[in-house]
Specification:
By secondary structure, the chain is mainly α. Helices cover 85% and strands 0% of the residues. It is rod-shaped.
């Protein structure tokens, strides 16, 4: 056993020696790479973000830098989502979610759920998408820093607003989240949240377009565009696609094409393939309305080709997503079972503990009662012993006070004798008292100044008077009579 423990100690020491501590220089390098990633994503350049994110992940893995692994994995998943590679995107998002750093950071968890929700939506998994958006919002409640909390709560409102409009077809709920978002963003610094406002105004414009409130839609599209121009924001395809929809609904096909082309130019710069497919479809439809079949055919073929490319990726990603969802459901079921088992065990422990505590309390209480009773009996015995000594002294003197004192000490016995045997005389009552005190016939003879034979005669007469058989012990009879209430 000693040798075994010694070997274990050597093994642990070896592991400790081989474990490489996280280097400050390496974490700084990983953080600097992640800063480049954030800058590229801010410029809506997902392709430019992939290389430094991959380098940061590789470096973080080598050094065991949990924060670097979590953030770089998330950004890779985010970039791949924008590039339409949903299958790989889900793998990296799951990797980030499982990392220790992410589990303790509500910002990371909220962002992971938000992007997962977008992927699920693009894969046609509406229910799963909405669940992730709700999870993203739930995590924002735990964010402590106010500015971060406001920014990520705004993003959660944004996604829930879109989800309730598109997935659930509940425009009232959608408008509710949009108004919450608008109210929240009104309290923030525009320099920090202008992107959120661009998305919100675009969403308002789309909302009012669908309800044919075109003036309101135009108003919000203009507000979104003014912020894009003010901050030189490189991402505008989503706005221009929806602005084109506004003109298409109004029958202004030429204006619709102008805005669709603006969106197309922007998508080609950002390479957001998911949006590229939608714009090709819109342009094909609008050219068909104008009976420009060559242009309509050109964009329809581009749409079909790109959709086929994305379709394969989507199908594979959807299969993996469904498998992941099933795995998560199994985990949830396992957690519920484990929680139920834990609660059952806890309840059992509480019941057993309460029973033990109750039993102990009852035992202590009963012990105290017994001790009290024993004390009372002891005191009573002492009193009776002293009283008996006093009575014996009076009896031996044949003092007339004997019977009076006996009445004081044993009133219950005298009362019961007189009730059951009203014809008894004082002399017989005196004899009964001496018998009750358990005096022998010889002692009674001495107390009454008579012979032993006379005592036997008196006892026999007393039996007849009391109607007691010869088999009954007189002392026990009077003892029993003293206990009767």
């Amino acid at each position: 056993m000693k040798h075994f423990l010694f070997c274990c100690s050597l093994l642990l020491l070896a592991v400790g020696l081989n474990a490489r501590p996280v280097s400050l220089a390496e974490t700084k390098k990983a953080d600097s790479l992640l800063a480049i990633v954030s800058a590229e994503l801010a410029k809506v350049n997902p392709e430019g973000a992939l290389k430094p994110a991959t380098e940061a992940l590789s470096l973080s893995r080598r050094t065991g830098y949990s924060k670097g692994i979590a953030i770089s994995s998330f950004h890779i998943g985010q970039a791949l989502t924008y590039l339409g590679d949903y299958q790989k995107s889900m793998k990296y998002l799951s990797l980030s979610e499982q990392e220790k750093y992410s589990k303790g950071d509500p910002v990371m968890l909220s962002e992971i759920s938000r992007i997962k929700g977008q992927v699920y939506y693009l894969l046609g998994l509406g229910k799963a998408s909405l669940n992730e958006f709700h999870k993203a919002y739930a995590y924002t409640v735990k964010i402590k820093d106010k500015e971060e909390k406001d920014r990520f709560t705004s993003l959660a409102y944004e996604n829930l607003g879109i989800a309730y409009n598109i997935i659930k077809d509940m425009p009232d709920s959608s408008l509710c989240y949009m108004k919450k978002n608008k109210k929240l963003l009104a309290t923030t610094d525009e320099n920090d949240t202008f992107k959120n406002k661009i998305n919100l105004y675009t969403h308002f414009g789309e909302f009012y377009t669908e309800r044919q409130q075109y003036d309101s839609a135009e108003y919000y599209f203009n507000k979104a565009q003014s912020l894009i121009l003010k901050y030189d924001y490189p991402y505008s395809s989503w706005l221009y696609a929806r602005w084109g929809d506004l003109y298409a609904r109004q029958g202004s096909n030429d204006s619709a094409i102008v805005y669709y082309r603006k969106g197309l130019e922007n998508v080609k710069r950002t390479n957001l393939k998911g949006e590229l497919s939608e714009i090709y479809k819109r342009m094909s439809d609008i050219y068909s309305k104008q009976e420009e079949e060559d242009s309509a055919k050109l964009y329809r073929e581009k749409y079909l080709q790109l959709n086929a490319e994305l379709g394969n990726s989507k199908n594979e990603a959807a299969e993996e997503a469904v498998a992941l969802l099933l795995k998560e459901e199994q985990k949830q079921s396992y957690r519920k079972i484990r929680r139920f088992a834990s609660l059952t065990v806890l309840l059992l422990v509480i019941v057993v503990s309460a029973s033990v505590i109750g039993h102990r309390r009852r035992s202590i209480k009963n012990r105290k009662k017994m001790q009290k009773k024993e004390y009372e009996v002891s005191v009573l015995k002492q009193k009776l012993n002293s009283a008996s000594e006093e009575l014996l002294k009076l009896a031996k003197k044949n003092d007339p006070a004997f019977l009076f004192r006996f009445r004081d000490i044993y009133p219950g016995l005298i009362r019961n004798i007189l009730e059951k045997h009203p014809g008894i005389t004082d002399s017989e009552l005196w004899l009964s008292a001496l018998i009750f005190l358990n005096l022998s016939s010889k002692e009674i003879a001495e107390c009454m100044f008579i012979t032993h034979r006379s005592v036997q005669t008196k006892k026999n007469r007393l039996r007849k008077k009391l109607d007691i058989s010869g088999d009954t012990d007189l002392h026990r009879y009077f003892q029993a009579l003293s206990l009767e209430k």
